Amino acid sequence: MRIPNLTTTKLLEEGPDSISKAAKAISNPFWQAVLTKMSPLESAFYNSNSTVKVEERVVWDNLAFQQNGLPFSRRSNTTMLTRNFNSIKDFISKTTNVLMGEHEVKNNLKGSQLQTWNQMVASITEYLTSKNLTWYDIGSSGSGPQHWGWSRLVLENSKSRKFYQLLMQKPNDAPRNPNEQKWREKGLTTMTSERFDKMYKNQSKLRCGLRIKWEEFRILWGRQELNRYKANYSNTRGDNKTTCSYCGHYIEDEIHLYIDCDTSGTFWEDAEEWYQAAFGVAPPLLLNGPRLFGMENEPPDDLLNIFYRCVRYTIFMGRKRAATPELRYFVSLVKDELKLKYSGNKILKHADNQSEKKAIAWMREQMGWVLHNRRASPN
Questions:
Q1: Looking at the structure, do residues 187 and 291 belong to the same domain, yes or no?
Q2: Is residue 273 part of a domain?
Q3: Containing structural domain, residue 241
Q4: What is the pLDDT of residues 270-300, one digit of tens each?
């Protein structure tokens, strides 16, 4: 940033875009990674938190305030203008408590500076309007601590996980993932954006084998490596058939493999019959959404989601192994999933759940576990 005698005050006056650009030259890899995210972090903080006083937002080198597609540059303007009008609240008149009139700043600013000032006022007005605010809302509440620059961003996010949550947020006008519309075009018309958001959240919480998690991610995106892609390959081995690995009649994609194929459909029924007998849980097979993505309203380690996930992976892996998916492979996957779910003391969390009792008993038999019941707390 080339600021002589850099102090905390001077640093807080800087806009987020200038800090992000200057951070690329920092030798410390940790602070370089943190400060290069300053621009999206500051934007997410002010857009997501309705209690934040927008009047404290720095207007220089900030992508939220632009002229001709570029932020207002601090280095391209005089110190008189940048020091006296650093944040939105600096544009409020001390006598009228509303936006300054042009006559109030004309004596201190020259022609080009006054033109820049007017452009900044227009940009800030547009920003306030987008947040359903007016200049009368700025400076109307003098209660609470008054922050300088972006110091509120640091003080209200004392834990690193809070910064991570801010960076994970998308703007309201951000485009949706194109795979969602493709799924709807293939017949899943009930898959709304809200349902996809729940599935993305479940995917982030999923704890299972990494190969299985990767395939679950690819199904959600509609990009699983199936025979349909062989049409794009060069015919080097003479095996460029795009039809289903099981029935051999239709193009192999996710819809056919997990829903329409008669061979995999028979396996779904066999697996459901075994699952119900072993655990007393009967996963519904009539709905297409759960067959492809599981139950978005249930946690990823729920017995229903474990069933759907293990069946899908068994069908996917069985394409090159046998003429039909193997039930014993499915059972081994279920065993691995339950081992993760009930390992250590986590089994105690599910011990009193009636729907989990048969699954716990099955795992105890398979693994030779001894379950120590919780002692009742004394009255």
A1: yes
A2: yes
A3: 178-340
A4: 999 999 999 999 999 999 999 999 999 999 9
160 and 16 share a domain?
Answer: yes
Residue 368 maps to a domain: no
Residue tagged 């007016």 (tokens): 134
Cα gap 2→115, rounded to integer Å: 26
User: What tokens does 125 get?
Assistant: 């007005």
What burial letters (b/e) apply to 207-235, b meaning 16+ CB within 10 Å?
ebeeebbebbeebbebebebbbebeeeee
Inter-helix orientation angle 193-205/210-221, to 10°: 170
> Which of 275, 282, 288, 281 has the alpha carbon at shortest distance from 314?
275
pLDDT in tens, 100-148: 888 888 877 877 888 899 999 999 999 988 888 888 888 765 556 677 7
Q: Measured between alpha carbons, how far is 158 from 45 in angstroms, rounded to an integer?
A: 13
Closest CA to 220 of 242, 244, 245, 195: 195
Summary count for the chain: helices (H), strands (E): 19, 2
Let me know if residue 370 belongs to a domain: no
Nearest to 283 by CA among 258, 304, 262: 304
Name the burial class of residue 254, with classes exposed (0-12), middle (13-18) and buried (19+) by CB atoms within 10 angstroms of its CB. Answer: buried
Neighbouring CB atoms inside 10 A of 334's CB total 26
Q: What is the DSSP string of 30-96?
A: HHHHHHTTHHHHHHHHHHH-TTS-GGG-B-TT-TTSEETTEEPPSTTS-HHHHHHSSBGGGGB-TTT
Q: What is the CA radius of gyration of the chain?
A: 29
Nearest-5° angle of CA 173, CA 178, CA 179? 135
Q: How many residues does the chain have?
A: 379
Which amino acid type is present at position 166? L
In the numeric block, which tokens belong to residue 364? 């105890």
Closest CA to 244 of 328, 315, 310: 315
* 217: its two tokens: 């991610």
Global model pTM greater than 0.90: no
